[in-house]
């Protein structure tokens, strides 16, 4: 009796329907989970669709037991068995339908994975801050102190480069924007591909040091932060570190 029952399940393609449904349903559920969040579909909608896929499994088994697909549509198994062989040639069409559905679902899943990776990459690029430190102006009477202004810029670049979340433009790239020359910070920001620009000036006397710096939003040309440091010349390195922070 038990053997006859399993033989009847096989004859009615219940096993094949179960395997095909599991494969197609799993792929479809994965595709939904990957693609729908990209379009900001609420999580409860995704959960509901996955639940419907699960509920559909026993329903599919019942339908495969009770019905067969014929040229005239779904027929009860007893009726389909009594039909001539020529009329029942599409009784296994459901297999092709299941395979096509599985392939489409796998394609949807792959698309979702690609979209998620692309979105994550774009998000990472968007959240990373970028900054350029322009050459500092030398306001000292002694023009030979220009090397000192360059040293301040280099030290600030070095300190900022230690911040992993910050994209810092190299000294070589910003060297073209000479100190003392007119600057259009919006244009510079676009040319360097940065959101923020630091510029400033250095004034040095034998025993005193003044460093002024401004942080500018290159997209709007708005000043975000500015500070002036008056210190003894011996505190140079401390000032550089404080300015970078």
Q: Which keywords apply here?
A:
single chain; 245 residues; alpha/beta; Rossmann fold; six-stranded mixed beta sheet; two-stranded antiparallel ribbon; 9 helices; 8 strands; 55% helix; rod-shaped
Number of domains: 2
**Distinct helical segment count:** 9
Low-confidence stretches: 86-91
Major sheet summary line: 6 strands, mixed
What do you see in this structure?
- With 245 residues, this protein is of the alpha/beta class.
- The protein has two domains: 2-123, no CATH class; 129-244, Rossmann fold, CATH 3.40.50.
- The protein is 55% helix and 20% strand.
- The protein is built from nine helices and eight strands.
- The strands form two sheets. Strands 3, 4, 5, 6, 7 and 8 form a six-stranded mixed sheet that branches.
- Helix 2 runs antiparallel to helix 3 and helix 6 packs across helix 9 (236-244).
- The radius of gyration is 35 Å and the shape is rod-shaped.
- The protein starts with a helix and ends with a helix.
């Amino acid at each position: 009796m038990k053997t006859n029952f399993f033989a009847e399940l096989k004859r009615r393609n219940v096993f094949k329907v179960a395997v095909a449904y599991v494969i197609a349903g799993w792929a479809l559920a994965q595709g939904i989970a990957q693609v729908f969040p990209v379009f900001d579909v609420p999580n409860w909608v995704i959960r509901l669709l996955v639940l419907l896929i699960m509920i559909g499994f026993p329903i599919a088994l019942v339908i495969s037991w009770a019905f067969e697909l014929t040229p005239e549509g779904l027929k009860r198994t007893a009726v389909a068995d009594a039909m001539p062989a020529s009329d029942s040639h599409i009784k296994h069409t459901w297999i092709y339908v299941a395979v096509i559905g599985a392939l489409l679902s796998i394609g949807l899943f792959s698309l979702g994975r690609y979209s998620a990776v692309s979105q994550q990459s774009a998000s990472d690029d968007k959240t990373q801050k970028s900054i350029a430190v322009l050459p500092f102006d030398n306001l000292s009477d002694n023009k030979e102190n220009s090397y000192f202004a360059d040293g301040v810029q280099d030290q600030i670049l070095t300190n900022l480069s230690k911040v992993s979340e910050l994209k810092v433009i190299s000294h070589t790239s910003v060297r073209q924007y000479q100190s003392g020359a007119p600057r259009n910070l919006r244009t510079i920001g676009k040319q360097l591909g940065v959101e923020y620009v630091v510029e400033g000036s250095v004034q040095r006397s034998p025993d005193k040091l003044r460093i002024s710096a401004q942080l500018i939003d290159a997209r709007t040309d708005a000043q975000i932060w500015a500070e002036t440091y008056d210190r003894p010349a011996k505190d140079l390195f401390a000032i550089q570190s404080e300015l970078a922070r």
